[in-house]
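Subject: Protein entry, chain in single-letter code together with its fold tokens

Category: Structural biology, sequence-to-fold work with a learned token vocabulary.

Notation: Tokens come from a learned vocabulary of local backbone shapes, not from coordinates.

Start of record: The labelled sequence and token lines come straight after this line.
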Amino acid sequence: MLGVIAWSIVKLIENLPAILKLKAIILIPLVKRFKFYKLEKEAIRSDIQGTVNRAVNEIANELPEGSIKPLEIEYIQESEENSFLKENKIYLRIKPVENESDNFLNVTRLYLELVLIPNSKSLLSIQQKRAVTYFTTRKIVQGKNRLIKKLHNDYYLPDTKKYNKLKNYFEEITKIDCRGLFFSVVLRTIERGADALLFKKGSLEKEFDNILGYVCEFLEKLKEGNLEKQMWKYIHTGTSFSLLLVAAPHRARTLNTQPYVNRLKDNLKSTDCVFVVFSKDEWHFGKKVSKAIETYGEVDLLETIYTNKDYREKSGGIIKLYSKKKK
């Protein structure tokens, strides 16, 4: 019996966003009916806090490690809005508006501004940071057309008039994410390069531009079937990586994994890491390649990333990030 109780408590803690949502579902109708306005405010706060936590958790597997932190909301009336990090939790102090959906959008946008790309944020331009925030916010509110329109008209459009590169950044990010390579490859490489470029003013801004441009060109050449050998590698000051796609139908039929192991080992001679990108349709073969790489490739598996799309724009993708084995 005690074991069951302990297990139940653990599951409650693990599903905190769901608990907040349940709390809101129970409280909101009651407090509105009996006009307990203070409790109504608390119920709505719980609803939005739980909804944001849950929505962000849905894309957690795509984001670089350390991006997601629990959210705590405090509604205020008089003092200035602010936010801070305490005990690995994000606290937002905001003035609520009447519309609950607008509160959800505002909280999501402000929260993402704080948590995304924690290592590189201070080294990027405001246009680059805004583009990442707007794109990720839109991704979280997708399907909610009124919120997408509000995000676009009230926040994004005014900023495009102030920042002339914002629209281009946003469009390139959108194009790359359709193939599952934005959060997985671009943001992770930027985060990994932050320490190396910390003391070189403007370097990470240029690196962000270079990596976006490289991945866009890579995907265009891939679509055309016109990828030259050097296009599989990105090598710049401070950061380098290579891409390896596992999906060739003739390889899948023969189940020959050795060519992938050889190419990965060759790429690691000149780059820091390799993103091995698997096709969802041929993951049965991908698992064999992955096993062969980890058995014979002399590598460390840094991370397994689950993306919203694979590089063929089909739903769900898997990317494994490898580096040379540490001796």
